[in-house]
Amino acid sequence: MESAVTVLRSIAFQIAFYLATTLYLLAFLPLLPLLPRRTLWRLGVLSWVRTNVFLLRVLVGTRAEFRGVENIPDGPLLIAAKHQSAWETFALLPLFADPAFILKRELMHIPVFGWFAAKARMIPVDRKGGSSAMRAMTRRAIADIGEGRQILIFPEGTRRPAGAAPDYKFGVAHLYSSLGAPCLPIALNSGLYWPRRSLRRRAGTILVEILPPIPPGLGRAAFMARLSGDIETASDRLLEEGLASLGDDAPPELRGRAAAPVRSPLSTPVENS
Q: In the chain, N or C: fewer CB atoms in 10 Å?
């Protein structure tokens, strides 16, 4: 059972998070038609990300450690990240020069937020649109890759609980074969500290492992096998390390999986404080 302190800190963060998000949206709304996209990104979005990271650290005690940052290549890139939490929808952004999220079309219809997403040239996809929606998404992604941007997709399509069986979708393989760019896999264990569909937040260190890029040119089946294998193997290792670190504070349904910490084979970690 969660302590009263953890519950109160979680609620305090949630209130602060939404308040900060609202204030940033309102502050930059008058500048939306005036500022160039890249300027709005640097001044608005990245400042909002830093604020969220600060609030999470101060109010909850949650930090992040990024491993393998030297694996991030310059230039156009397809990024395929494990998706366990809302945390990675903002915390991964500062790692890349000019990222474009692939997100569900409904988010673009949210007042104010959707206007900012459009200004940032995020790539909407209609999940029920079938092949025509896939073609539209691919055209947008190809155009952005041609400008040197980084396309970020969650290959499972939606958040999965920490420790859940993977469920990779076809869309990432279609993008990979269409873009002709390397794919950067990212593993993480954020779901231990910021569970989906829950107000609960846990103190500790979220682990992110940026894996070696997959070069372009693989067949779709070979690509999917390598991508899922790389991400899941690393995510399982990070999950076990996180569970061992959390100890009695680990999610009850996952405590049986806890193992001795396993350090990443990648290079010296970078802590996001």
A: N
